[in-house]
Design goal:
The chain folds into three domains: 77 residues, RNA-binding S4 domain (Structural Genomics Hypothetical 15.5 Kd Protein In mrcA-pckA Intergenic Region, Chain A); 78 residues, Pseudouridine synthase (2-Layer Sandwich); 163 residues, Pseudouridine synthase, CATH 3.30.2350. It has ten helices and 17 strands. Helix 3 crosses helix 4. By secondary structure, it is α+β, with helices and mostly antiparallel strands.
Length: 343
C-alpha cells in the first residue's frame, strides 16, 4: 500500500498521515506499525508513550482507535533505507506456513508454535505476522486479530482485510467470541468451576520487563476456570474461558488464586515447577485450544480447535501413568464440562 505520508515542514521533519475509511477502527499503534515501513517498532511505541503522536491536535494513546479523516501528526523519525529492511528467514517463513490450520478468503488461523512471538519487537526482529506477510506479499492488509504470549501455543487469528479485522475486533469488544485455553495449574484446584473477575494493571519494571498485577485501578478482566483432571495434589488440568483478553490475564488470575500455571517463569512457583519438570515439562503449560464465533453473513458459528502440542501431551501421559486410573474416571464429567478432548 502506498503511504499517505506528507511532510509538513522540511526543516522540522514533522509529517502527517490521513486516515481513510479502510483504516477506521484499528488501534493507532498497529496502524503506525503498518504504515511506517522502515521505522523500528520500538521507536513507534516510544513516540506514542511520550505523547509525540497527535491526532487532530491531541495526544494519542496507544489504544486509540482510528476514525476516518483523522489527521495524525508524527515527529521527525529516521527510517532505514528500503534496501536495508530485512526479511524473515526462509526457515521461519516455512515454519509459520506449516502452522496454518485454516484459511479462507477472509482470514487465517495459525496453530502458533511455542517460543515464537506473534510480532517482532522487544529484541525480536520477526514474529508470526512478519513471516506470514513475507509468505503472502500479495496480501497487503494482513493484521493480527489478537495476541498470544510468546510461550503460549494454539489458535491465533489473522485477518486478510481491514474490514474483516474491524468485524472481528467488534466481536471481541462485545464478548461475542468464545476463547478457550488448556492450562496445567500447580496444585489441586479445590473450587470446581470458578469465575475470577479481578481488574488487572500493567506496569513496566526496570529494563522494560512487563509485569501485570491485580489492582483496583486496573482494567476489567474475567476468566472462568473448570477442572478437567487432577493429578493428586501435584497439578490440575484446567479448561479456561476468558471474557476479556488482557495481557497475561489467565496467568495472573491463576497465580492470584494460589494455583499458578506450571512453569510460568514470571508468575509461577519454582519449587512446584521443579517437581513437574520430572514429568518432562520444560515450558509454560498454556495452550489456546479453541475459538468460536458467528461470522458476518453466516448462519452457523465458526469454530476451530488446535491440538495440544506433542510435548505437552507427553507430560499429561506421564502424569497419568503416575496416578491411578480411578482418578480419571472421577474426572470424566469435568472433562465434558471443560469441552476438552480427554488426554
Amino acid at each position: 500500500m502506498e503511504q499517505r505520508l506528507r511532510p509538513a515542514d522540511a526543516r522540522s521533519g514533522v509529517s502527517y498521515l490521513e486516515a481513510t475509511q479502510g483504516d477506521a477502527g484499528q488501534r493507532i499503534d498497529n496502524y503506525l506499525v503498518r504504515e511506517l515501513k522502515g521505522v523500528p517498532r520500538s521507536l513507534i511505541y516510544r513516540i506514542l508513550r511520550t505523547g509525540e503522536v497527535r491526532v487532530n491536535g491531541r495526544r494519542a494513546k496507544p489504544d486509540y482507535r482510528i476514525v476516518e479523516g483523522d489527521r495524525i501528526r508524527l515527529p521527525p523519525m529516521q527510517r532505514e533505507a528500503r534496501s536495508e529492511v530485512k526479511q524473515p528467514s526462509k526457515s521461519l517463513r516455512d515454519f509459520i506456513a506449516s502452522a496454518v490450520i485454516y484459511e479462507d478468503r477472509e482470514l487465517f488461523v495459525i496453530n502458533k508454535p511455542p517460543g515464537v512471538a506473534v510480532h517482532g519487537g522487544s529484541g525480536l526482529s520477526f514474529g508470526v505476522i512478519e513471516a506470514l506477510r513475507a509468505v503472502h506479499p500479495e496480501l497487503k492488509e494482513l493484521e493480527l486479530v489478537h495476541r498470544l504470549d510468546r510461550e503460549t501455543s494454539g489458535c491465533l487469528l489473522i485477518a486478510k482485510r481491514r474490514s474483516v479485522l474491524r468485524e472481528l475486533h467488534a466481536l471481541l469488544r462485545d464478548r461475542s467470541m468464545d476463547k478457550t485455553y488448556q492450562a496445567l495449574l500447580c496444585g489441586r484446584w479445590p473450587y470446581g468451576t470458578k469465575t475470577i473477575e479481578l481488574p488487572l494493571k500493567t506496569n513496566l519494571k526496570q529494563g522494560g520487563e512487563r509485569v501485570v498485577r491485580v489492582h483496583a485501578e486496573g482494567q476489567e478482566a474475567l476468566s472462568t476456570f473448570t477442572p478437567v483432571q487432577h493429578f493428586g495434589k501435584l497439578a490440575s488440568l484446567m479448561s479456561v474461558s476468558i471474557g476479556t483478553g488482557r495481557t497475561h490475564q489467565i496467568r495472573v488470575h491463576a497465580s492470584h488464586a494460589g494455583y499458578p500455571i506450571a512453569c510460568d517463569d514470571k508468575y509461577g512457583d519454582r519449587q512446584k515447577d521443579a517437581k513437574l519438570k520430572e514429568f518432562g515439562l520444560h515450558r509454560m503449560f498454556l495452550h489456546a485450544y479453541s475459538l468460536s464465533f458467528t461470522r458476518r453473513d453466516s448462519p452457523a458459528p465458526f469454530s476451530i480447535t488446535a491440538p495440544l502440542p506433542d510435548d505437552l501431551q507427553s507430560v499429561l501421559e506421564q502424569l497419568e501413568q503416575a496416578y491411578p486410573a480411578a482418578n480419571r474416571q472421577r474426572n470424566s464429567k469435568a472433562r465434558s464440562a471443560g469441552g476438552l478432548k480427554a488426554p
